[in-house]
Amino acid sequence: MKKTDRDGPRATVQPLALNVVAGGAGFIGSHLCRALLDRGESVLCLDNLQTSRPSNLRALEGHPRFRFLRHDIGQPMPAEVLRMAPRITRVWNLACAASPPLYQRDPEHTMLTNVVGTNNLLRLAEAAKARFLLTSTSEVYGDPEIHPQAEDYRGNVSCTGPRACYDEGKRAAEALTFDYGRAGRAQVRVARIFNTYGPNMDPDDGRVVSNLICQALRGNEMTVYGDGSQTRSFCYVSDMVAGLMALMDAEFDGMEPVNLGNPHEMTVNELLGHVVALTGTRARVVHRPLPVDDPRRRRPDISRAGALLGWAPRVSLAEGLDATCAWFAEELVAEPAAGVAG
Amino acid sequence: MKKTDRDGPRATVQPLALNVVAGGAGFIGSHLCRALLDRGESVLCLDNLQTSRPSNLRALEGHPRFRFLRHDIGQPMPAEVLRMAPRITRVWNLACAASPPLYQRDPEHTMLTNVVGTNNLLRLAEAAKARFLLTSTSEVYGDPEIHPQAEDYRGNVSCTGPRACYDEGKRAAEALTFDYGRAGRAQVRVARIFNTYGPNMDPDDGRVVSNLICQALRGNEMTVYGDGSQTRSFCYVSDMVAGLMALMDAEFDGMEPVNLGNPHEMTVNELLGHVVALTGTRARVVHRPLPVDDPRRRRPDISRAGALLGWAPRVSLAEGLDATCAWFAEELVAEPAAGVAG
Prior knowledge:
- By secondary structure, chain A is an alpha/beta fold.
- Chain A contains 11 helices and 13 strands.
- The first copy, chain A, has a domain at 15-198 and 236-263 and 299-313: NAD(P)-binding Rossmann-like Domain (Rossmann fold, 3-Layer(aba) Sandwich), CATH 3.40.50.720.
- A 7-stranded parallel β-sheet of chain A has the order 3-2-1-4-5-6-11, with helices on both faces. Chain A has a two-stranded parallel sheet with strand order 7-10. In chain A, strands 8-13 form a two-stranded parallel sheet.
């Protein structure tokens, strides 16, 4: 094989911290890669490009400390990644389709990504003596019966329904991660991510913020599932990335999950009002049936993140939606005019 | 490759139903294999012999319609099994260490057995157009907050604790199984098995019935975890096997799990009293701390099994314990005398 970078003339710029970011071409992953590069670290991004946007990747690929490898984490780790183990200091698992229509398209793959994929990355972290962070999800709480959700709530998840491939996959991934931690095989961190929004979202992945903004900008009918009284709490992506980095950096035993999200709760109808006001759309609102097992309420209790990391979200909904609308407006410019795309 | 049996002189005795029984050398699996053979079917037993008793297997191996293949279902299916697909009519997944001390020994393996192993068997069933049955567990209810537990109860499971590799592994296995069913990839059946006891249990796997009987028979101290007021409901193994076979045979869409167990609930102290009376032991009782996440109460609501399968347990605790004690007494004869084994 060829000599690695560190032996060549570029050795002097080889940074100390090499991060493996699985799912680094995705929505949150791409922001994380950017933030790690911005603080002087190196990033090896693994992504199967299943649900990632190529433009997220293009914005990173020119960077001298960024490298991309197309890889599905459910498959055995490529030898070239294993050879980098001595240099890897951090392994971040942000890989998995996260919106219900996408993760339900191939539920077997979703489950294996969460379980086998997480295990493959944990083994890499173990071999590299690197710290590992799993991005778990508020979906581990299912349709919660207590409110807001603190980390010790065990959840109300259907393990037989169409969302189970994701929800139970993430719960299994947490179980695996804490088992590695308990056995001293790796230092572990588990973040439970609540609804997040911002630039680099996929316009068509079916999440409520991107759905409503894109429908408004395209002048299409705006879809509300159910009567819109269900609540969500939306965290702007820069806040989320700051929380993930703080959690990875924090010195503690790591043996408890940490909620990350914005506790500002609103109904879907309120969000709709904001989007309508911001975009000035006159689009009609249509109601569709609530999906199976759709949670009625979601709000994180973030006291643990506050106490442990000194972290709290900073970006207001007004600021965040404004930036997100502006970004989507640019993204959609290249699209055919409303009505043509159908 | 060589011609298969059905082309040879033994073709006339080739039975119609070929069952793949994963975990067939285990406690319940060995009884299931015997029952299938007894009704004239063929059995291919896959087992890694991780927690199975070789003597369970020896009792089956002489049978002309029984075949054993040592195989870990978490590994890719052997080609010789795949070649049998056209003859396979039923795939039973009873493979996984089931007692807490054993499944916690290698939690990664436990999780992968449940997820990857179940998926491998589901793929086999899909290829074979065979019906698939997963033995799930009452552990999917965790430490239940409603009582008794019906199938629509979503459970109270910790996905971060030391039991999660099993509990969440089984929940993930259910999710996978129902996804195959929903997509029409296989006909599926999911049984949630509650505590079961009887001959062929491992004397040393740490389950309460075998623990107490063997301690009594050996004249050792008898261990009760906690104060013994926690409840369990014990099903005799012949009832369990009858339930599993009825579920596999039942004609319905299979898209709901079915509890199998005995609803006769008792405290661990009551069980202890029965065992003491039956064995006449004068052994001292010692109390040890309750394990983490140990469920306080467990009792199946078996109305679904009754309505769907016309099934209910028939063997009383007195009969079942009597048979089990007699079997253990014979098993332990070969052991060194009490006190010597330490």
